[in-house]
Fold these 3 entries.
Entry 1:
Amino acid sequence: MARNISYQQAIGEALAQEMERDETVILMGEDVAGGAGSPGEDDAWGGVLGVTKGLYGKFGDRVMDTPITESAFIGAAVGAATSGLRPVAELMFIDFMGVCFDQMFNQAAKFRYMFGGNAETPVVIRTMYGAGFRAAAQHSQCLYPVFTHIPGLKVVTPSTPYDAKGLLIQSIRDNDPVIFCEHKALYTLEGDVPEEAYAIPFGEANVTREGDDVTIVTLGRMLHVAHEAADALAKEKISCEVVDLRTTSPMDTDTIIESVENTGRLVVLDESHPRCSIATDVSAIVAQEAFGALKAPIRMVTAPHVPVPFAENLEDLYIPDAGQVQQAVRTVMGKD
Amino acid sequence: MPLSKDELLKAYRMMKTIREFEERLHVEFATGEIPGFVHLYAGEEASATGFCMHLDDRDKIASNHRGHGHSIGKGCDVDAMMAEIYGRGNGLCGGKGGSMHIADLSKGMMGANGIVGGGSPLACGAALAAKQLGTGGVAISFFGDGASNQGTSMESLNLASVWNLPCIFVVENNGYAEATSSKYSVACDDAADRASAFNMPGVVVDGHDFFAVYEAAGEAVKRAREGKGPTLIECKLNRYYGHFEGDAQTYRGKDEVKNLRATIDCLDRFRAKVTSADLLSEAELDVIDGEVAALIDGSVEKAKAAPMPAPAELLTDVYISY
């Protein structure tokens, strides 16, 4: 039975259902309960945005507040994952990977290969990314391309409540380390989500809108910007197909190529920076595998190659918008 | 608890196996046949052995770049380790890890580690798993004086104390972080002094004395198994070779290693103690020496003869397909 719930509730529900199903699933992170050792409520916060609110009450010491010590607790989650638990660790902001990256990319990502296949590391690192909250340069980045670069990590970027639940359940059941990236502007987005548990396989992009003239490949929050642009372009008789990657590692290149072979034109929309990003990656794959199908040069719509600014007007300029996407589509259509 | 005769024999065999393994690697590395970076543990055997003698299948260890001794102590197969160091397809990690990444999770050996300070958070995780799953297991992180200064070490001590984890932190202070003296790089007198800041016992032990290490380790393991939390133990010891093989060690004093070998060698001290107390005979120890020499000879011979990994192995063992 599907109900209308938020992205935030969908994530909380996925966690609760997996914790019910499998008692080796534990949560840890800064203030995931909120209130450990303090005189007030034990479950005061449920994470800074309330995503894990209520889980401490249900699962007790399987929901563990940590000191602000990302290297130690992300590493502990990784170590516990090799020792029989399935930890879900919350790295509050993706920007904080700067203080604990070693545990993710030198440890978790490498074990299976480095140990000759004799290791499984079923850890999920949930982390919040993206601009739009006036949170400035150290709390707003889209760093999923950095994780996507590292073999051994799986990288997930859900764009809707339905995908958030299904992809998180898959992440928890997966036996590889998964970086689960939640866009902070999506937590309040509502959508139909089945009550029962379900898993969405990794590496299956979602064609969220069919069209004939241009393929827009995108992910995360930008999916909604792509749809806004596609709606506007439909009034100009330009038909856009929108492909939501859902996961950047593994990446569903087949669906991208198939779509571009049908439309002959590609616009890639990515909130991350333009260098070594998902936009450049998708562009390179299409240039290599489907060059003959292209009727026009590929266009990338990304944030500029600058840190995320604080001032409202500057941050609004920073984030790719539907107008830029429409312009890029007109360009590849030869209508600019 | 005094050690039984079998335990004494086991401890001597463990120390001697580590020593022979490392001495032989030193010789073989010089021939140019062994690729990559190799960091030898010779001189420090009493530490790995003193701790690992207390461990069983429930327990896990996280090691570091100088990890051969810990691997042998935790029961990794010596032939498979040697093959791994030669980068052979039948190595413990299929030739994909090498000396710095020897691991056997089935034995509770969570891995040597190429990142200084990388292991302690992982050991916290293993200890957390033991606690949550109620296995009764403990986790030990072995790290050096260099890693003792890393933020991950301090964070792990704090986390283990906050969560009351069955975790033991062992600083093997061999006096040098690469070429820099611990007298220069460690701000406190003893790295173990830091324990008090994290509300856990801090113990300094003579790392050349197997019996002293064994006793301190036993108390820490007992404390951890009883749910009383973590311990920090600093073993003061020395390495007989450089930071890595090929290190000319110009930072060390003249005859420093020669004097160490002559005066404080852990195997010599063990032998002197057990024979003078009539616990073991010279002949019994000599038999072990012979068996260990044959074991290491065989492991080198087999490693040299073993095939390289198949080229197709380049692309396997990354991502689990489903």
Entry 2:
Amino acid sequence: MQISHTRIFQLQRLSAIGLVIFLTTHMVVAHYPPGHLDFSRVIERMAYPLWKGIDILLLASALVHAVTGMYMVITDVEKVGRYRQVLGWASIILFTVAFIYGTITILAFRLPAETVNLIP
Amino acid sequence: MYKTTGFFSFALRRITGVALALYLFLHMWVIGSINQGQAAFDDRLATVQQPIFKFLEIALLAAVVYHGVDGIRLLIVHYFNVAEYRRSLFYAVMVVSALLIIAGGLPMLMFALGGH
Amino acid sequence: MATNGTTRTVTIRLQRFNPDVDKKPVMKEYTLEITSDTTILDALEQIKATQDGSLTFRRSCRHAICGSCAMNVNGRNTLVCNQRVNAHLDRKGAVTVRPLPYLPIIKDMVVDRTSFWEQYQRVKPWLVPPDDVPEKEFRMTPEEVAALNDAEKCIMCGACYSACTVTAVNKRYIGPHALLKASLRVLDPRDTITNERLIEISGNDGVFRCHTIFNCIDACPKKLNPTQAIETLRKLAQKREAFVAARKERQKSL
């Protein structure tokens, strides 16, 4: 498979726009005002499927942006140039593994059975 | 190094970018403790809420804000023919980032210093 | 040398390197009298004539058109033939001249520009016109000519190439000079190998390696804009097939 730099560029721009939207939302909603964080505070939000959807989109944007960014940073060095095919595959594997793990994590936020009826 | 505003913004973009990418995986590891149950999650979350981390989070906010605002500048340069205003754009990014970091960082600083 | 009468004494700090003697470059200071009209090139000539005949530098036309005398003055790349010493003096009345950065030094101010020319050749800087040349001339619209106007002023001095942070760490990168030339050829409606050009410049060493640092614009003594040329090529590379089809259509009515 040939690595297309046009595609990397487009992925990076697309995920950048995704990040501006979702990361801003994430930081304002999840971390403001700053306060002590524990399961009970996180689950207030994570109990809703919509938030899980938004968080999965945030996860995908952040991972795409991070992985393409790291790939470009590393391959900018001349001597690394000849390993770029290997690095490309490593990036794709890293993205896939991290995305699956992150999605499992997001879906793992479930209300404990005994407290379900405490939250309206 | 050939030092210009462009080089400075590039260096900052690289440093914050690499730092944020590493932080992303750290963040996923912390949140991932939910897979071992609610108790493990609360435990690990408490570890990363010691005072030192509250100050580090302000640095994190600064990195995120700078990287994001600088990225918007690059989008502007890509879609509009404004390369001749490169220095003004650079200072605009600095001012906007500084304002956002102060606005977001002050409540965090109060909280880190023991407020609510 | 033209003079308006008043002279002043200044210090010229030069980076010297003789590969036969020196292990690494050393800075040497020269004191000389200048007038307000003395260019940095004049000062170098004066030092070579009166103080140290071994000083080596490239120069030719003295009219900012040959592109031989690009050097690094006080940390900025520029041509030395159109810059007056007076304009570059620091607070202590000194000016520092070094060879172009990030390139291998041959001697004193002379750098090895092999990679510069190799990357230039790589983008096929010549025009490849259609086979059936019209009897009189190609007819281009004023807008099409205007789009080409700026890039043709490039004098190949190497100031932008040597200022670029990306080429500093990666000599495989095509470089701002060659990408500017590539945009000149890609935007030319007479060119027939547009597809090939766009594939080359969108590859691993092409326009997507540019990190929009703007050093090339800052360095260019002709006030050209390689960054914008690169942004244009990025847009065209993303819609390559449509652009090439439009080009074929356009050439029917040249």
Entry 3:
Amino acid sequence: MPALTAASSAGAATMVRWVSLRIDQDQARFKGIVRGKIRQNLRRYVSQGELTGKRGKDLVSIPLPHIDIPRFRYSDRQQGGVGQGPGEPGSPIGPGDDEDGEGEGRGKAGKEGAEHTIEVDVTLDELAGILGEELALPDIEPRGKNKLLDQKDRYVGIRRVGPNSLRHFKRTYKQALLRQISTGTYDARHPIVVPTRDDMRYRSWKTQEEPVANAVIVYMMDVSGSMGDEQKEIVRIESFWIDAWLRKQYKGLETRFIIHDAVAREVTRDVFFRTRESGGTMISSAYKLAAKLIEDEFSPAEWNIYLFHFSDGDNWSVDDTTMCIDLLKTTLLPASNVFCYGQVESPYGSGQFIKDLRERLGADARLVTSEIRDRDAIIGSIKDFLGKGR
Amino acid sequence: MARHDLATVLPPYLRDLQQEVEAHARSFGLDFFPTLFEVVSYDQMNELAAYGGFPVRYPHWRFGMEFEQLSKSHEYGLSKIYEMVINNNPSVAYLLEGNSIVDQKLVMAHVFAHVDFFKNNYCFKATNQGVDPRTGEPVRKWIDAMANHGATLRRWVDRVGIEAVEEFIDTCLSLENLIDPQKPFHPPRAREKKSEFELLDGDETLEPAGRLRVDRDYMKDFINPREFLESQQRGLDAERAKAKRVPERPDRDVLGFLLEHAPLERWERDVLWAVRTEAYYFWPQMQTKIMNEGWASYWHSRLMTEKICDDGEIIEYAERNAGVMETASGRLNPYKLGVELYRHIEERWDRGQFGPAWEDCDDLEARRSWNLNTGLGRKKIFQVRALYNDVTFIDEFLTPDFVAEQKMYAFGYSKRNDRFEIESRTFADVKEKLLFSITNAGQPFVRVTDANLGNRGELMLAHEHQGIDLRVDWAREVLQALVRVWRRPVEIHTVLENKPATLRFDGREHVQRLRA
């Protein structure tokens, strides 16, 4: 067993080794600042939808204005500078990215670029967390069907025997230090602490059973002729954020997509966001399909079911609307945690459907309706939908 | 060397290389501090680069930001740091683990020239912390100094919290460029207290102001007529009024001024002191970017091509060197500009192309074939590297021939076309623009002029306008930082769009007004 000593500055070589912790702290605080910036600009990010396209597997790259420390300096436009290369007077020069790549380089001859931006990677989970905090969204309480259990090992305890790979260095050191001080063998001038067998401490684990909440989101979108590109974009952005938030709440989140005009069909995520059909609108077709989907695959006893429907509210006939309301009453609402209807304003539609829903089913707490006038309204609409914590 | 032979992790084959390169460098007359090489992995290299080369700095988020950017651009393959060296005695340089032998040789050659520059260029004398009485060598224990700043600030973090300290570091960094590069060369200031007492003592017995000595009483009114006495008195009063002003004369060392006069808590003083000390340490590197990189590039190319590379290595070296020297998208590359200018100087002094005869010669043909075989080139560039900084280097040695040969141009922003355009290729324009961009390391001149403005304890600064306005939004934020330190309203006199203007912040709101 090697002697454990407190870190000493034995020379530059070792210094380089242990500072890697130090930059971690600085980096963590930088990330904290970034989170603050994201929070400040969240509304812009949400409504512009520039993030939804930049999605990697788990990470989202967010362009942020370069965080600079302000100083007295010259304004860019008047300055100019000196360059090297071909070209006649009057010919434009390349924009030239201004990253200063050379080691300790600051202050150099040459032009200072316009605004820098940096890209920061944030996990979608974190972003959803920020959204949640910003909108004060309550955590969702899963409905009480915790039948599914998952086993998980967690390292929560300490014990005196164990494999060396689980040795708890700090506790062992403390224990040895304690022993040496209490027996009087500790010498402050030569602070060498040697642990004995009895001092060794190891991490130990407990197996815990965790209830797993299963959830499914069914997105339904009206793709009839009256839904334009802008309307679809709004739906796209809003469902992206809803997805992100619910994903944070549930581990095994399933998503299903239904599009409908006069008939409904289940499609992939890609198709959901891209298609543009043109036909009449029969909303009941989508509700029927959703009801079938729930019956076949997602038993309400085991699943938390979220239904989102986006439309411009221009249904084909009064009869169809009545059928929709019946469907909601008898099957969809009882089965789901919440049924959200978002009505996107379009230049063509009458927007009658939301009024009908509110009139006939407005009392039911499981139904949430929201009107989305434009992109700026997305964030309010998300709050309408998810603000109840159901 | 042996005395400084500290423990490093340099593997034997690199140690052998170091000895070889070092011997070659010395044979050319380079004179450097003992240099320690360390091999680090790329993330350690990024970390060190984020800390400006130092293993330990005070805690601050911007190091984390630097690190994140460096790591990312490394991972994406956009940039790679080959070399880093610290101005310290002994100097410490880092080699990247896993680089090819040619790369390591190149870096070593480059580093020894840098260290020679650190040791011999006069600007860097400002970073001396004293002289070792035994060897006469300058003391530069900056790794220790930076680590001490780190330790001090970390202790304050434990007492007052990271948020408070970091916020105040932000504040101080906003003022980081407000230092006086000449100050380290001033003689130490005489104690003020003493002279104040003398003035008091003297005042009682002092002859009425400025009276000339009168030996014969009847000459009194002729030698000292009333008008003369009055004018003398006025002069003296003005002098005394000036002496009462704080600062006595406009002071560019705003950070030093604040350190002395601002109502700071102890921990705030320690933070400001650390930031100021480090700002002074880094300044010479900003003042000599072109010269320093040029010098290192000049010597790595000579050492590599004349001494170090064997036949199998020369191509790889040439490729690497070309990458360093490239001038992409019309931007000035300090490595390239510096090395070419040293070569230009060397050639001129080798051929005797200097002095009145050369200056007065108008015959193009004669100038082209001018060769007096003076052979002073080597001697001259060594002298240049000791006595010049970027500004004087360009001012004295940039020639019309060189500007044409290097295809240099001056560019500026064209309002009409909303873009940056080449403005001119004439020597005078290029030189003027270039000099402007490196004067004071491209920073505006700002001085503190009055600490008791309007007898209300307000601070006044003056920007010496040289044709380019300050960036106003940033200037406002700097004023906020100044108010944070000074705790009273602060204003700066400048010129905006050709009109004298004052920017003022009183702690609550910003005011911008024109001055008559």
